Amino acid sequence: MVDCSDVVNTLFTLVASVRFFISPLLFVLGIGANIMVFYLFLTNKPLTRYNLYPIALSIFESIVLLLNAFIDDFLGRGLYYFSNGNVRIKVDTASLSACQFFEFAESWSSFVAAYIMLAFGIDRVLSIGLPHRFQRDRHICSTMLLYLGIMVVGAALSAPIAAGSELKYENQATMKVWFPGAAKRIEYYTKVNVTVITFLIPTFLLVTINCIIIGQMLIRKTTHPTVNDPSESRTEMRRVITYLLISFVSFACTLPLTVTICVRAGHDFTTPRCEFSIVAELSRLFNSTKDIQYACHGYTYIFFFKFFRNRLKQMCSRMRENCCCGVERVLTKRSPNPKIAQVTHISTK
Questions:
Q1: Architecture in CATH for domain 10-310
Q2: Cβ(100)–Cβ(162) under 8 Å?
Q3: pLDDT score at 342
Q4: What is the pLDDT of residue 334?
Q5: Which bin fits 85, alpha (ψ -120 to 50), beta or left (φ > 0)?
Q6: Which among 140, 225, 240, 337 is least surrounded, fewest beta carbons within 10 Å?
Q7: What distance lies between CA 27 and its chain's CA centroid?
Q8: What's the gap between Cα 277 and its chain centre?
């Protein structure tokens, strides 16, 4: 029979390994992809509603990767474990204000990113169902107002969690964010509700909405096969597949976290210590692995958007040319007296 302490220690080591090796990799890959998405969609003319959604997602997903994957997981926890406690950069424990700010920023940015994806799914349903009223170049201002509304709601939802967080010294003379006093379980239940609203509900709805979109596309192709331009229909289908894939990835990454947090919220003083410790370590593990979705979303566009691939190739070509020209200029400057040799072709005839 496997000892409970061995299972907990294995999970603890796994969590630390993910935070030290995987989290910084997710940060680098995700930030690079999001910068690429932001630039290519922003400079793709004309600017449409379809361009606004990836642009907004790239911004808020980058914030999540910075705060959670890099600052919290890697700097604050991964380095601490693999340096045997010698190195730990916990910027969110520098002060109570820093603690509350980072708690608010992580929750808020995750909420905004999730519901922007949901809004895009609803936009796709309306665009396919009412193509004349929801053309690509219409309702851009309304979309921006929708972003603002999502940001305000996310801030209102995240503020109580941030306001209730405090600092606590642990046995190892380190600090962490916690929810103190007799209200600890009430605050944790609040965090469970925020987690369900932020992660589970929008991703599940997005999967449902995109399935509806697939049904709409198939019905329209069957009932009106000659109405639309075939190339436009293929482009529309690629858009649907892209965001369907993104939604499934988000759902797969956030479902384990939501389940473990809900299970952990149901624990009390009667819960066996072994079960409590295992669920706690699993929730920490899934909290780190959920960032996979933010790192891989940007690369999805490469496979389904031809303009994205073409623009990316052009950008890489320009960067390579600039790099080569820069190297040539440096080599020319380093050569003190360059000799010009005339090469004469001598015919053997």
A1: Up-down Bundle (1.20)
A2: yes
A3: 47
A4: 66
A5: left
A6: 337
A7: 9
A8: 28
Contact 76, 89 (CB under 8 A): yes
Least confident of 75-89, 104-118, 124-138: 124-138
What is the reported pLDDT for 47? 80
Each domain of the chain, given as residue ranges in start order, spans: 10-310
CA 273 and chain centroid, separation: 33
Averaged pLDDT, 88-102: 81
| Residue where the block lists tokens 């509304």 | 149
User: In 10 A of CB 49, how many CB atoms?
Assistant: 19
**Angle of helix 230-265 relative to helix 184-195, nearest 10 degrees?**
170
Whether the CB-CB separation of 13 and 288 falls below 8 Å is answered with no
Contact criterion met (CB below 8 Å) for 248 and 296: no
pLDDT(112) > 60: yes
Letter for the amino acid at 144?
Answer: M
Position 269, amino acid: F
Calculate the average pLDDT of the chain. Answer: 79
- Please give the model's pTM, rounded to 2 decimal places: 0.80
Of 3-17, 100-114, 258-272, the least confident: 258-272
CB-count exposure of residue 62 (10 Å: 0-12, 13-18, 19+): buried
Give me the percent of the chain exceeding a pLDDT of 90: 23
Cα distance between residue 328 and residue 215, in whole Å: 56
- Tell me the three-class secondary structure of the chain, residue by residue: CCCHHHHHHHHHHHHHHHHHHHHHHHHHHHHHHHHHHHHHHHCCCCCCHHHHHHHHHHHHHHHHHHHHHHHHHHHHHHHHHHCCCCCCCCHHHCCHHHHHHHHHHHHHHHHHHHHHHHHHHHHHHHHHHCCCCCCCCCCHHHHHHHHHHHHHHHHHHHHHHHHCCEEEECCCCCEEEECCCCCHHHHHHHHHHHHHHHHHHHHHHHHHHHHHHHHHHHHHHHHCCCCCCHHHHHHHHHHHHHHHHHHHHHHHHHHHHHHHHHHHHCCCCCCCHHHHHHHHHHHHHHHHHCCHHHHHHHHHHHHHCHHHHHHHHHHHHHHHHHHHHHHHHHHHHHCCCCCCCCCCCCCCC
